[in-house]
Design a protein that fits this description.
- It is built from four helices and five strands; from the N terminus they run βααβββαβα.
- The chain is of the alpha+beta class.
- It has one domain: 3-Layer(aba) Sandwich (Aminopeptidase).
- Strands 1-2-3-4-5 form a five-stranded mixed sheet.
- The longest helix has 15 residues.
C-alpha cells in the first residue's frame, strides 16, 4: 500500500472533493481552503495526511496535537476529517490511517487520542469500535453560527 504523507498545497481541490464524502452541504470554497491551509501551517501541530497511490487521493485524516496542563503535561491528540473514497473502502485504508494517527500521537508524547463522530454514522462507529477505541462520556456541542 502507498505511504501516508502530508497533504501538499496543490492537492487542496482533490482533498475538498474527498472531504465532501463527510458533508457535501458544507463544502468549503477552494480559495478559502487554500488560505486556511497556509494559516494552519503556523500551528505547532495541525497536519493533514493523505493516502495517494498512483496520484489518486483515496484517504485522508487530520491530526491535531495539543499541549496540556493535565496528566503531568502530557499532550492530547485529536483526529478529525477521516474520509476514504467510496471505491477504496473495505480495503484496510481507514485502519492503516488510524494506526498511523495513533503512532504519530504516541511518538509526540500524547497520552490519548480522541475523535468524535456524528451519531448517525453507525458504520463509522463500528469501525472505531473494531480498532479498540472506547466510547467515552457524552459529547456536547452548541451551534454558534446558525
Amino acid at each position: 500500500m502507498t505511504e501516508i504523507r502530508e497533504l501538499k498545497p496543490e492537492e487542496i481541490r482533490i482533498y475538498l472533493r474527498l472531504l465532501s464524502e463527510l458533508d457535501e452541504k458544507k463544502r468549503m470554497p477552494e480559495e478559502e481552503a487554500r488560505a486556511l491551509f497556509h494559516e494552519i501551517r503556523r500551528y505547532p501541530y495541525y497536519k493533514i495526511y493523505c493516502v495517494c497511490p498512483e496520484d489518486k487521493m483515496i484517504g485522508t485524516y487530520t491530526l491535531i496535537i495539543l499541549d496540556n496542563f493535565g496528566h503531568g503535561g502530557l499532550k492530547i491528540a485529536i483526529v478529525e476529517n477521516v474520509a476514504v473514497a467510496p471505491d477504496a473502502r473495505h480495503a484496510g485504508i481507514g485502519r492503516k490511517m488510524m494506526d498511523d494517527a495513533m503512532q504519530r500521537a504516541k511518538d509526540n508524547g500524547c497520552y490519548k487520542l480522541m475523535l468524535s463522530s456524528d451519531i448517525k454514522r453507525s458504520g463509522a462507529h463500528a469501525f472505531y469500535d473494531s480498532l479498540g477505541f472506547q466510547r467515552h462520556g457524552i459529547s456536547f456541542r452548541t451551534e454558534l453560527n446558525k
